[in-house]
Amino acid sequence: MHVDCGTLVDGTGDVIEDARLRVADGAVAEGGPREDVAADGERVDHSGEVVVPGFVDAHVHLQGLRTMDPTDWVLADDAECAARATVDCRRLLEAGFTSVRDLGSTVALGLRDAIADGDVAGPRIYTSGRAISQTGGHGDAHFLPHEWAGESGLGIATLADGEAECRKTARRRLRNGVDCLKIMTTGGVLSEQDEPDHQQFTDAEIRALVEEAHRADRQVASHAQGAAGVTAALENGVDTIEHGFHLDEEAIDLLLETDATLVPTLSIMFRIVEEGADHGVPEYGLRKSREAFEAHVDSTRRAHVAGVPVATGTDFLGAPLVPHGENALEMELLVEEIGLSPLEAIEAATGVAARTVPDDVGELRPGAHADFVALDADPRDGIEAVREVAAVYKGGERVANGASDL
Ligand SMILES: [Zn+2]
Q1: I want to staple 213 with a disulfide (CB 3.0 to 4.6 A). Which of 8, 181, 384, 404 is the partner?
Q2: In which band, very low, low, confident or very high, does the pLDDT at 405 lie, cut at 50, 70 and 90?
Q3: Where along the chain do its domains lie?
Q4: Sign of torsion, CA 267 273 279 284?
């Protein structure tokens, strides 16, 4: 088939007017000015629209959560989580997100496979399975007595302490078929007994986790907010830094030196600071978010100016405060708060975000999956155009027509 595009934004930085995309066997065969690309097979007419690569959210949790109370998260039943997460997957697709990297879920591995088999509609999922935290770390349920939380942890993270346990936990994840590992090298906002500045895991533990993943060709993502935990993660080989609230010059230099990707997840922080109090975010989470807010925006700006690849990731979980389907917010925040141009924000959500996943998505180059979105408005006139989704294609098949009233 061939797709006639009013404008084609291919995700590599190129913009072509009056373009054509030729698609064969679910992949892009060729793209370019209309007169240079053969009109093979069926014609799909998007000559009145702007065609962009399918968006990639590089940090989500497909856990079907519907509240912001961490107690509810660990008590939720997996079948209920999976059922709700299938609805979230549909919403992601309708919003133009054809790929997501899930960084902590008890159900995403199964969802990934059900979607890949065609049983459930949704984006391509690349998942870490459950995240890995130290005891008392960001992923521990330390609002519960230790005996209740157990030795291995609850909910979307499990616990590992010492190099040997870290290796064994990493190997278990790989045995389960994960696409990457998610570790936590600092405290966080929604964990009661730690602070974003606290480093978690020792260098030896981080190195053990990273070695196991890299030997199996998987990337490692680290939840890392304070500079010490960001630096320790990067020095020990972590590939992507999640959040990065407090980046000092050393951390930014290391991000550049190691060619790591920064996924700032501005969206969840903005939503918590603006409306978290109305949605049951615990008091400690509100306090820590407000304290980190300015530094977070400033760190992201400095990293972007220094040339660090910044990818879109919302950290959305499915609750009404942070619902799947509104993931385009991250592109808007990158423009409005960080100073990216609209085309740079689209690149952050396509070519750059695709650096974090082991597949050929995010750029409409020959050989890549034919995942693309037709937009009714031109994002160069305003980034909010990325919400004007007219049609969504995954592997060359039309899978959604923009937001439904699900
Ligand atoms: Zn997260």
Answers
A1: 181
A2: very low
A3: 2-54+363-400, 55-356
A4: positive
Q: Report the phi/psi class of residue 185: left, alpha or beta, with left for phi > 0 and alpha for psi in -120 to 50.
A: alpha
Q: What is the CB neighbour count within 10 angstroms for residue 366?
A: 11
Helices (H) and strands (E) in the chain, counts: 12, 16
pLDDT in the model for residue 403:
62
Residues 6+ apart with CB under 8 A from 273: 286, 289, 290, 293
Nearest to 248 by CA among 227, 265, 234, 228: 227
- Count CB-CB contacts under 10 A for residue 12: 14
Q: Does residue 402 surpass a pLDDT of 90?
A: no
**In whole angstroms, what is the distance from residue 152 CA to residue 135 CA?**
9
- Centre of ligand 1 to C-alpha 156, Å, is 10
- Provide the b/e sequence for 46-56 (b: ≥16 CB within 10 Å): bbebbbbbbbb
* Distance from Cα 196 to the centre of ligand 1, integer Å: 13
Report the C-alpha gap between 339 and 228 in whole angstroms.
26
Q: How far is the CA of 13 from the centre of ligand 1 (A)?
A: 28
Closest to 59 in 3D by CA, of 360, 399, 348, 395: 348
| pTM beyond cutoff 0.70 | yes
Distance from residue 317's CA to the centre of ligand 1 (Å): 8
Ligand 1 mean position, distance from CA 182 (Å):
9
How many Å lie between the centroid of ligand 1 and the Cα of residue 297? 17
Please give the structure tokens belonging to residue 46.
């998007």
* Domain 55-356 architecture: Alpha-Beta Barrel (3.20)
CATH class of 2-54+363-400: mainly beta
Q: Which residues surround ligand 1, an ion (CB under 5 A)?
A: 315
